[in-house]
Design brief:
With 331 residues, the chain is α/β, with parallel strands linked by helices. The protein has 13 helices and 13 strands. The strands form four sheets. A six-stranded parallel sheet has the order 2-1-3-4-5-10, sandwiched between helices. The chain has a three-stranded mixed sheet with strand order 11-8-13. A two-stranded parallel ribbon has the order 6-9. Strand 4, helix 5 and strand 5 form a beta-alpha-beta unit. The chain binds guanosine-5'-diphosphate. Guanosine-5'-diphosphate binds next to helix 6 and strand 7. The site of guanosine-5'-diphosphate (GDP) has 20 residues, from helix 6 and strand 7.
């Protein structure tokens, strides 16, 4: 990838997009193109088409999406499916018409079926029913993968989707009702410490297992994939199943390679924050899928490994929380 090539990162203010931009800038890419939501609404087909026609980026990362934690997914299913289908459909087609050379679409490990063998391999996609709490989001994201696959097959494009495990990192959403578990637990433990509470409430039973990836590791992985030589990148584009008979979607898992229970996570967060109370489980809240651990052997085989341990990432995230507006409200 030429250091002066125009690279569009959609969703640059989000957890993933901001990490991709940091990684690109750190590696000396000088022509990174971004737009705020106010400047470009990707759910709007005409605006998206105009943007690609005028800007003609050579490479694009689609990290703009409607995302949220288990409760947000459960509460706003219509918005999760509608917005994500619209963004991907507008974006992928406009990228094709304007001649984007390579496209990486951000997908998610929650797109895999609820009960599949663990760790989950790329070929487990579409092999069984989905987790109901996030099925609308997952179906939308699967449509994005299928679009990449179909465009590669019909038009010879080079589009792939990456499948990160649960993410956390600087700029996370610390809102307790819409955010994911790590930012929520950081905030809850911090507030419990400040108030001198005896306990912190953790949703569900604490038994589900999750794998967590630090956002800057994901940013680095995405840029490393985008830079791969053709002969390796082309191996990720998926096979034409109608010809090969092989189910090989154009996706690649990105994860740490190990998971923890939510109870273990809560204990780690308490230690990092310095809150010494007890954990109380609120079983009226959903557990979601029992386990989500990714098989990252495909990614490891092309030479990439996550660099940030959960412990180190949590410490960095707590420092980020202390700088955030959420901490100012909590103190
Ligand atoms: P998921 O991976 O799609 O289920 O996304 P989440 O990050 O929202 O939740 C992961 C797990 O953490 C689920 O089992 C939740 O019930 C559990 N959890 C425990 N406490 C919390 C909390 O305060 N907020 C959230 N979002 N999840 C929590």
């Amino acid at each position: 990838m030429d250091k002066h090539a125009k690279i569009y990162v959609a969703g640059h203010r989000g957890l993933v997009g901001s990490a991709i931009v940091r990684s690109l800038r750190a590696e000396g890419y000088s022509n990174v193109c971004v737009r705020t939501h106010a400047e470009l609404d990707l759910t709007n087909q005409a605006q998206t088409a105009n943007f690609f026609t005028l800007e003609k980026p050579a490479y694009a990362f689609l990290a703009a999406a409607r995302t949220g934690g288990i409760l947000a997914n459960n509460s706003y299913p219509a918005e999760f499916i509608r917005d994500n289908i619209a963004i991907q459909s507008n974006f992928i087609h406009a990228a094709y018409l304007s001649g984007v050379t390579r496209l990486i679409v951000l997908s998610s490990s929650c797109v895999y079926p609820r009960l599949v063998p663990q760790p989950m391999c790329e070929r487990h996609l579409l092999s069984a029913p989905l987790e109901p709490t996030n099925r609308p989001y997952a179906v939308a994201k699967i449509a994005g993968i299928e679009m990449c696959w179909s465009y590669n097959r019909q038009y010879g494009t080079r589009y792939i989707a990456v499948m990160p495990s649960n993410l956390y990192g600087p700029g996370d959403n610390y809102d307790l009702s819409s955010g994911h578990v790590i930012p929520a637990l950081i905030r809850k433990c911090h507030e419990a410490k400040v108030r001198g509470d005896r306990h912190v409430v953790v949703w569900g039973t604490g038994k589900p297992r999750r794998e967590f990836l630090y956002s800057d590791d994901l940013g680095h992985a995405c840029v490393s994939l985008m830079k791969l030589p053709d002969r390796i990148f082309d191996g990720l584009l998926g096979s034409d199943e109608t010809v090969s008979g092989l189910f090989e979607p154009p996706i690649i898992n990105i994860g740490l390679g190990e998971d923890v229970t939510i109870e273990e996570l809560a204990t780690l967060v308490m230690r990092v924050v310095g809150f010494r109370g007890k954990i109380v489980f609120d079983a009226t809240k959903p557990d979601g899928t029992p386990r989500k651990l990714l098989d990252v052997s495909r990614l490891n085989a092309i030479g990439w490994r996550a660099r940030t341990s959960l412990q180190a990432g949590l410490a960095k995230s707590y420092a980020d929380f202390l700088r955030s507006d959420a901490a100012a409200v909590s103190s």
